[in-house]
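> forwarded from #structure-qc
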C-alpha cells in the first residue's frame, strides 16, 4: 500500500498520462536476473516479483550506471571533464563569464559535487547488507526513525530533504540497524522522486530480509516547490509504502504510524 500527501492545498484534480518507468523493463545484465528461489516453477519471468529494484538497483536507471560503477580511473576522469564542460556551457548561457575569478573552478567543483550527490549509483544492496542478517527469533516491530535524507529531484535536479522512518516485523531474522539508513542513503543518492524513493527502500528491505512486513514513510521539503513554481516554503510532502502484514493489519500499521509520530 502506498500513499502520498502534501500539506499544501491540492490543485484541481486533473489526470496525467501514466508514464512507463524504465524499471518495468527486463534486466539488461545477467547479474540482474532473479535468484532461483524467487522464480515460481514453470515461470518464464526474467525479473523478480518486485519490479521496483534489483539487489544492485542498477537495471532500473540505465546501462550507463553500470558503466560508471565499473569504470577505470581514466574513464572516471573523462566523465568528470564532460560534466565540467557542460557546466561551463550552462554558465555561459546564463550570461556569466566562466573565466572570472569566482567561477573559474566552479565547473570542476560542481562536477565533483554531482558525482558525490549521486554516488548511490555506485553502490548495491548486497554489499551494503553484507552478512549483517542475524537469526534472533524476534517477531516484534523494529523501527529506525528520523533518518535524514538528501536527494535530487530528477525533474529539476534540485534537492529535496527530509526524514525517513523505516519499520519492519521480522520473520525471526533481523538486520543490523545501521544497514537500514545505509540502504536509504543508497537509493537517495540518485536522481529520484520521493514516491519512488520510498518504494525502493521498502521493496529492497522486503527482498533482502524476507520479513513479515515493512513500512517506510518519508517527510520532506522540495526546493523545486520552494524556490520556483508555487513557491510554498512551508509545504511538506509525505509518502508511504506499506507491505506484508503491516499493510494487512490495521492495528499493527497504526502502531507504526503512531510510533513515528504520524498519527497526529
Amino acid at each position: 500500500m502506498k500513499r502520498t500527501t502534501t500539506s499544501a492545498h491540492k490543485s484541481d484534480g486533473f489526470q496525467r498520462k501514466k508514464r512507463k518507468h524504465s524499471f518495468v523493463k527486463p534486466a539488461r545484465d545477467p547479474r540482474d536476473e532473479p535468484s532461483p528461489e524467487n522464480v515460481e516453477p514453470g515461470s518464464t519471468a526474467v525479473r523478480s516479483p518486485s519490479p521496483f529494484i534489483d539487489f544492485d538497483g542498477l537495471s532500473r536507471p540505465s546501462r550507463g550506471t553500470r558503466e560508471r560503477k565499473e569504470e577505470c580511473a581514466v574513464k572516471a576522469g573523462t566523465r568528470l571533464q564532460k560534466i565540467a564542460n557542460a557546466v561551463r556551457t550552462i554558465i555561459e548561457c546564463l550570461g556569466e563569464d566562466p573565466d572570472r575569478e569566482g567561477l573559474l573552478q566552479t565547473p570542476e567543483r560542481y562536477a565533483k559535487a554531482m558525482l558525490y550527490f549521486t554516488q548511490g549509483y555506485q553502490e548495491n544492496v548486497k554489499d551494503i547488507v553484507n552478512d549483517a542478517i542475524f537469526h534472533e527469533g524476534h517477531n516484534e516491530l523494529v523501527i529506525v526513525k528520523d533518518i535524514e535524507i538528501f536527494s535530487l529531484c530528477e525533474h529539476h535536479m534540485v534537492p529535496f530533504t527530509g526524514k525517513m522512518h523505516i519499520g519492519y516485523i521480522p520473520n525471526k531474522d533481523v538486520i543490523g540497524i545501521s544497514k537500514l539508513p545505509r540502504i536509504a542513503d543508497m537509493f537517495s543518492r540518485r536522481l529520484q522522486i520521493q514516491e519512488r524513493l520510498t518504494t525502493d527502500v521498502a521493496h529492497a528491505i522486503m527482498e533482502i530480509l524476507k520479513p513479515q512486513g515493512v513500512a517506510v514513510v518519508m517527510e520532506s521539503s522540495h526546493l523545486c516547490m520552494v524556490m520556483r513554481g508555487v513557491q510554498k516554503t512551508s509545504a511538506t510532502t509525505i509518502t508511504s509504502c506499506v507491505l506484508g502484514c503491516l499493510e494487512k493489519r490495521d492495528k499493527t500499521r497504526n502502531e507504526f504510524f503512531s510510533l513515528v509520530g504520524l498519527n497526529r
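QC bot note: The first helix runs from residue 63 to 70. Residues 8-40, 43-52 have pLDDT under 50 and may be disordered.
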